[in-house]
Amino acid sequence: MAEVGFPGQHTTTTTVTSSTTVQTNLRFDPQYLKTVPGILKVVQVASSFLGFICIMCSQLSFIRKATYFCWISMIAFWFTGILLGFYLFHMVEKFYKIPWLKIEFGFCSIWTLLYLIAAILATTVHDNPHSAAAFFGFVATAAYAADALLKWRAVRAGGLAQGTRVVSKQTTSTVESPPPRVGY
């Protein structure tokens, strides 16, 4: 016997439609530099390059700590600089099937940690160029951490790196229950 208040039948139909809109032509878009990801990339490239210059101006640029900082900053400079160029010319949008957000999330997460280590090591060398490099290293650490957070949120939301994706969800429910029993 079915209890009163419980449906005899329950049907739920969910329809999810998704459309991705991208333009596959290459074009220069300086407006990207005014977005939060664009500003973060510019800060990352600039702080990586300035930190590298500071270390190279030191008379102690041959020590391992300085070499490590140079290695981290140059990989960050080139990787992020190339990505910035990809975004400015909409190459990321052209190749939208590549998981750009996941790639960037991984890189930003790893480089947050590596830059933090490099900046801390630079503070242990007691000369002015290393202190300046440490400052730029901490700026880069913060920029990469913020970018990693943005990429993590975008990956979880199912977003695209560039272009738009519209997801619409339609749910239909049908509930049939027997008539209530009257009396026992």
Automatic annotation (TrEMBL):
<protein>
    <submittedName>
        <fullName>CKLF-like MARVEL transmembrane domain-containing protein 4</fullName>
    </submittedName>
</protein>
<feature type="domain" description="MARVEL">
    <location>
        <begin position="32"/>
        <end position="156"/>
    </location>
</feature>
<keyword id="KW-0812">Transmembrane</keyword>
<feature type="transmembrane region" description="Helical">
    <location>
        <begin position="101"/>
        <end position="125"/>
    </location>
</feature>
<keyword id="KW-0472">Membrane</keyword>
<feature type="transmembrane region" description="Helical">
    <location>
        <begin position="42"/>
        <end position="62"/>
    </location>
</feature>
<feature type="transmembrane region" description="Helical">
    <location>
        <begin position="131"/>
        <end position="150"/>
    </location>
</feature>
<keyword id="KW-1133">Transmembrane helix</keyword>
<dbReference type="InterPro" id="IPR008253">
    <property type="entry name" value="Marvel"/>
</dbReference>
<dbReference type="GO" id="GO:0016020">
    <property type="term" value="C:membrane"/>
</dbReference>
<dbReference type="InterPro" id="IPR050578">
    <property type="entry name" value="MARVEL-CKLF_proteins"/>
</dbReference>
<feature type="transmembrane region" description="Helical">
    <location>
        <begin position="68"/>
        <end position="89"/>
    </location>
</feature>
